[in-house]
């Protein structure tokens, strides 16, 4: 039986605290991975690693360089703000570690491409925890589309609308940054659209704006059309200044128009609708079941990938660079006012 892998956890506050309390103890219980060290710039946050991961104080650091230098590990888990991802990846590669990183790869397309090139050159494995599409409801919809029971897929629509118009209602920093809807609000949804359509994006056209009642420095509303490489179309509606919240976090709206039926996911309920028999047929589809979803499932699959128990991780770096390309190509489209070829955009950035 394989020995458990060893990891260094970078970031134990905020979302990193969720990892410590929920995701990582399960890996130890399964015998898949155990902690070698934990890092957080705030020493108070390290108590979470001590309490949840049972790490002694000596293996908890405020300096990541010391943590990497003083502890032997197989991989690093990166749960810090995106602007710091690249520097942590650099340290992990310097110590010959694989990388499991929270989304996105980095905070700009150029930084994403630098990380991509460095990881590839080092011959290491990296996956990005795009957890949202690995939730139970989205997985049920994706599997239903790909079952073939409903014929060919025509197009997919995704919607995300919130009442976050007042400053601070979506976190202070999101009200201050440019392109806030696209940068902070769409990365998971673009990833889901890629999964539902079964394709990478060919072109994207984005129109974004901020209405007078939105207390944002950047654009908080947007309509995005995407043509996928396999010919399927996608439409995304994002609105952070709505008068009402139609679908909260993890209660998304997606509609797949198929040849033989309409599949509608709304607030974690999946309906299959068709009038082709001459009368309206509505089927409430139960959600699929398995032991865990989202981050816990992705972390388990990452360990299995490193241990040679699976051929690939579903959000490996080559997959996720496509998600980053779609996101930042949409930003480019919103700025230039015309469609952007996503693959040309990606290849030009990778080559620079």
Q: Can you describe this structure?
A:
This protein is α/β, with parallel strands linked by helices and 352 residues long. It folds into 2 domains: 5-124, NAD(P)-binding Rossmann-like Domain (Rossmann fold); 133-290 and 323-345, 2-Layer Sandwich (Dihydrodipicolinate Reductase, domain 2). Helix content is 35%, strand content 24%. It has 11 helices and 15 strands. It has helices spanning 15-29, 46-52, 64-70, 85-94, 109-122, 136-146, 180-185, 187-197, 294-306, 317-336, 342-351; strands at residues 5-10, 33-39, 60-61, 75-78, 98-102, 126-129, 153-161, 201-209, 221-228, 233-239, 253-258, 262-266, 269-274, 281-285, 340-341. It has a 9-stranded mixed sheet with strand order 14-13-12-11-7-10-9-8-15. A hairpin with a 4-residue loop joins strand 9 (221-228) and strand 10. Helix 1 crosses helix 9. The radius of gyration is 21 Å and the shape is globular. The mean pLDDT is 97.
Key terms:
6-stranded parallel sheet, Rossmann fold, 15 strands, alpha/beta, Dihydrodipicolinate Reductase, domain 2
CATH topology of the largest domain, which one?
Answer: Dihydrodipicolinate Reductase, domain 2
> Uncertain runs with pLDDT below 50, 5 residues or more?
none
* Helix/sheet category: alpha/beta
H/E order of the elements?
EHEHEHEHEHEHEHHEEEEEEEHHEH
* CATH-level-2 architecture of the largest domain: 2-Layer Sandwich
């Amino acid at each position: 039986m394989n020995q458990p892998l060893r990891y260094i956890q970078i970031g134990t506050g905020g979302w990193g605290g969720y990892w410590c309390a929920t995701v990582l103890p399960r890996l130890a219980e399964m015998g898949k991975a155990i902690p070698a060290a934990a890092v957080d710039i705030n020493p108070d946050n390290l108590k979470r690693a001590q309490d949840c991961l049972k790490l002694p104080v000596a293996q908890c650091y405020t300096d990541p360089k010391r943590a990497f230098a003083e502890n032997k590990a197989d991989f690093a888990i990166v749960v810090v703000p995106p602007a710091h991802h690249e520097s942590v990846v650099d340290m992990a590669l310097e110590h010959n570690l694989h990388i499991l990183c929270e989304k996105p790869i980095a905070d700009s397309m150029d930084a994403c491409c630098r990380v991509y090139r460095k990881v590839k050159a080092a011959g290491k494995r990296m996956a990005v925890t795009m957890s949202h599409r690995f939730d139970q409801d989205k997985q049920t919809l994706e599997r239903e589309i790909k079952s073939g029971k409903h014929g060919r897929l025509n197009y997919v629509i995704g919607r995300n609308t919130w009442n976050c118009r007042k400053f601070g209602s979506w976190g202070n920093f999101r009200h201050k940054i440019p392109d806030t809807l696209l940068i902070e609000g769409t990365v998971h949804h673009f990833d889901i659209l890629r999964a539902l359509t079964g394709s990478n994006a060919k072109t994207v056209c984005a129109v974004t704006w901020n209405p007078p009642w939105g207390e944002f420095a950047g654009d908080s509303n947007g309509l995005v059309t995407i043509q996928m490489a396999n010919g399927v179309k996608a439409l995304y509606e994002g609105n952070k200044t709505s008068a009402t919240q139609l679908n909260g976090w993890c209660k998304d709206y997606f509609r797949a128009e198929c040849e033989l039926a309409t599949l509608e996911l709304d607030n974690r309920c999946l309906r299959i609708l068709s009038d082709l028999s001459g009368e309206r047929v509505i089927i409430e589809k139960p959600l699929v079941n398995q032991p865990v979803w989202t981050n816990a499932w992705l972390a388990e699959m990452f360990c299995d990938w490193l241990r040679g128990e699976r051929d690939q991780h579903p959000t490996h770096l080559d997959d996720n660079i496509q998600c980053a390309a779609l996101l930042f190509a949409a930003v480019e489209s919103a700025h230039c006012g015309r469609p952007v070829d996503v693959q040309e955009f990606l290849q030009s950035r990778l080559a620079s």
